[in-house]
């Protein structure tokens, strides 16, 4: 994948400006009472509640809230005020939202963040303020992750997990296509680098991924015509939210409709599958979670979710639910004053984590070591569903 340094300038400049402002203010010093009594604690969340990723951000908010509802509104024995701010479309709105939570609301920890560019912009702010960040969706590469944790996945992981399967089943070159922003670059890089290392060839005429302008691309038909003419035996992509709906619907109407479509699980996850309808039939995806997984934690999670929502829970809700569970255990382990640094130290000491996805743990870069699953869209009774096909790799 070709790096595009210019794309980083705006988020980086924004992050630097906000970081300097935080440093000047001395960051945040929120804590409980010195006796360790069950005082109210503030936790911040930045999630996309508007824009193309609204459905993802809403699931993340609701997943965290479900855990609170199942635990009497408490984490670690302390009543919790969850303060939620809108991430919007990405870094340009995520960084100011996080800055408000840190400086004005003085939260003890921050969670959420849908986009990789948002994480890249916000992580320097939380690090400068010396509060832990538990990202619960995208995770780009970070140089300083001492107080940054990810409960979802590394952005390279989905493509790495499915590359071998695609190589073994495509019977020819694969066309790689994705959105032209940090999340797309990382997601496609995970696939194309691993696929090439295994001996796979791309059908793209240049031998490199084709990038579609983000978030402005709504007409994918010209790209799909190019794919149909390329001789590709399969397609690999990453889209989410409204872009996923448009891509899948247009794929099913295009000359490329008979070329098998593989993607990171977000292509058909949650509400987007309902919007895609039968156009998504037969789409293969890779994901770290399925509502059908048979373990006690998942059964309680799914039952709680279905009591409040139509449809099954998503990986977005699950990762945010896990963020709440991690904070619960971390805060419970603190003796005395609850401080951001104490929370961070306790997270580092957690070890194996029970989760709806099964047990997992943080690696040295504070991202999950976890199993990935192959799914295929098909009919489960009367409803379309992401049917679990098989286990893939453990990545992390």
Description of the molecule:
By secondary structure, this protein is of the alpha/beta class. It folds into two domains: 5-153 and 296-362, Response regulator (Rossmann fold, 3-Layer(aba) Sandwich), CATH 3.40.50; 157-287 and 372-395, Response regulator (Rossmann fold, 3-Layer(aba) Sandwich). It is 40% helix and 19% strand. It has helices spanning 9-25, 54-70, 91-103, 116-129, 157-170, 182-197, 221-229, 241-253, 271-276, 296-306, 315-332, 340-348, and strands spanning 41-47, 74-75, 78-86, 109-112, 133-135, 148-150, 174-179, 210-212, 234-237, 261-264, 284-287, 361-362, 368-380, 383-395. Strands 7, 8, 9, 10, 11, 12, 13 and 14 form an eight-stranded mixed β-sheet that branches. A six-stranded mixed β-sheet has the order 2-3-1-4-5-6, sandwiched between helices. Helix 3 (91-103) packs parallel to helix 4 (116-129). The longest helix has 18 residues, at 315-332. The two termini are 21 Å apart. Residues 1-36 have low confidence and may be disordered.
Keywords:
396 residues, alpha/beta, Rossmann fold, 8-stranded mixed beta sheet, 6-stranded mixed beta sheet, 12 helices, 14 strands, disordered N terminus
Helix count from the secondary structure assignment: 12
Task: Provide the CATH architecture of the largest domain.
Answer: 3-Layer(aba) Sandwich
Unreliably modeled segments: 1-36
CATH class of the largest domain: Alpha Beta
Determine the structural class based on helices, strands and strand pairing.
alpha/beta
Query: Averaged pLDDT, please?
Result: 90
**Overall body shape:** globular
């Amino acid at each position: 994948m070709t790096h595009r340094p210019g794309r980083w300038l705006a988020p980086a400049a924004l992050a630097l400006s906000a970081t300097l402002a935080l440093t000047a203010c001395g960051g945040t010093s929120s804590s409980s009472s010195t006796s360790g009594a069950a005082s109210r604690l503030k936790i911040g969340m930045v999630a996309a509640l508007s824009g193309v990723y609204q459905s993802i951000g809403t699931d993340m908010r609701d997943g965290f809230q479900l855990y609170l509802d199942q635990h009497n509104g408490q984490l670690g024995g302390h009543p919790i005020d969850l303060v939620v701010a809108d991430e919007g479309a990405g870094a340009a709105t995520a960084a100011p939202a996080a800055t408000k939570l840190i400086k004005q609301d003085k939260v003890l920890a921050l969670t959420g963040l849908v986009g990789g560019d948002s994480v890249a912009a916000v992580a320097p702010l939380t690090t400068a303020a010396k509060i832990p960040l538990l990202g619960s969706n995208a995770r780009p590469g970070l140089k300083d992750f001492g107080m940054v944790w990810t409960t979802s996945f590394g952005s390279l992981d989905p493509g790495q997990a499915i590359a071998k399967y695609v190589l073994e089943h495509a019977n020819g070159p694969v066309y790689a296509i994705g959105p032209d922003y940090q999340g797309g670059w990382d997601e496609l890089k995970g696939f194309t680098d691993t696929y090439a290392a295994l001996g796979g060839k791309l059908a793209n005429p240049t031998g490199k991924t084709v990038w579609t302008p983000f978030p402005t691309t709504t007409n994918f038909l010209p790209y799909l015509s190019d794919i149909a003419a390329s001789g590709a035996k399969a397609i690999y992509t990453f889209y989410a939210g409204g872009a996923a709906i448009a891509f899948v619907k247009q794929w099913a109407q295009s000359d490329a409709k008979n070329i098998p479509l593989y993607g990171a699980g977000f292509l058909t996850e949650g509400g987007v599958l309902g919007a895609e309808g039968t156009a998504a039939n037969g789409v293969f995806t890779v994901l770290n979670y399925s509502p059908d997984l048979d373990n006690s934690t998942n059964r309680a999670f799914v039952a709680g979710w279905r009591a409040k929502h139509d449809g099954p829970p998503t990986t977005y809700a699950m990762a945010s639910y896990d963020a709440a569970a991690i904070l619960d255990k971390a805060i419970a382990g603190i003796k005395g004053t609850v401080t951001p640094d104490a929370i961070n130290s306790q997270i580092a000491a957690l070890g194996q984590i029970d989760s709806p996805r099964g047990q997992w743990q943080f690696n040295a870069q504070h991202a999950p070591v976890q199993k990935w699953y192959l799914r295929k869209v098909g009919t489960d009774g009367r409803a379309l569903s992401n049917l679990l096909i098989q286990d893939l790799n453990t990545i992390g």
